[in-house]
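Q: Can I borrow your eye for a moment on a structure tokenisation matter? Would you mind producing a protein record, from residues through to fold? Write it directly below this note and I will take it from there.
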Amino acid sequence: MKQIFRKFVVPVMGLAVLCMAMSTPGAAADLEKVTLRLAFIAGGIDAPVFVAAGKGYFADEGLDVDIVDGNGSTGTIQAVGNGSFNIGIAGLGALAQASATSGFDNITAVAGLVQKDPSSIISLKGSGISKPKDIEGKRFATDAGNLADGMIKAFAEANGVNMDTVKVIITNADQTALLKGDADFVNEWANPDGDHIRQFAEIEPPMLFADFGVNLLGSSVIVRKDWLAAHEKEVRGFLKALYKAHDDVLANPDEALSYFMKYRPDAKSTAIAEEIKVMEKYRHTARTEGKPFQYVDPEDIKQTISLLEKYSGMPVGVVKPEMIYTDAYLPSK
């Protein structure tokens, strides 16, 4: 009798549970499918995204978010702009350039994620490079694209550095050139690039461009303007979930790491743990320090546009702050 009861009741209970799940708000069948493309291969800076997914914060907002790695801000901007992805993570400076020169004025940023540019001068211990003018007369290894963005020129001008005295070495392996002694400095992110170099040799404290008068706003949440108009609720929900998840990352970095590794098990956990910790210091600029996560200051946007116009060849006056950013969808708290 017990066996008959078991055979009958278990399937019925299973059916009941299934029906309850399907009728419960936030159940998979009821969630809005949203595709998200990151700026690069997922790193510690992206931890809030994976926490929001793993802890059900996206689902609480009615979203089923598919998270895909990127290969640079430009690729993500193109993918969002042509409708391949609903939401992207890309540099706000890169968006300004794309809007001005590549016809991607159909995209806007709705939140800032990395606002203090990690770009820096990195040199090995004992290089004698501890202040901007110390790079004069030194060998600089860089790739052509990095040189073309103009920010090393902006850094030099802002700090009275004569770049004509610097020997430029164009290479696709600048870190290798530095470590081999073929160059005296490189222009890379202080973290995680500086951390990577430090694994092989001691380095001087990186000189952040942002600390010496040159800051481009970095990673932001971007969407197509027409998709935003039709999905305001989803965008608000996405940002709210991300905001909540970021609080959790700050409160428990180890837990954040575990969620990250759940979604990206092939990542090097020790490196991701370090990135989660150190990349937080790039969330805010001097103007947004003490402000809520995701908030972007209008003056920082103006500065970013101005730097790009002066040093990167972006057409002057084409891009206005309101064309590439809106704060209308940020969480109220």
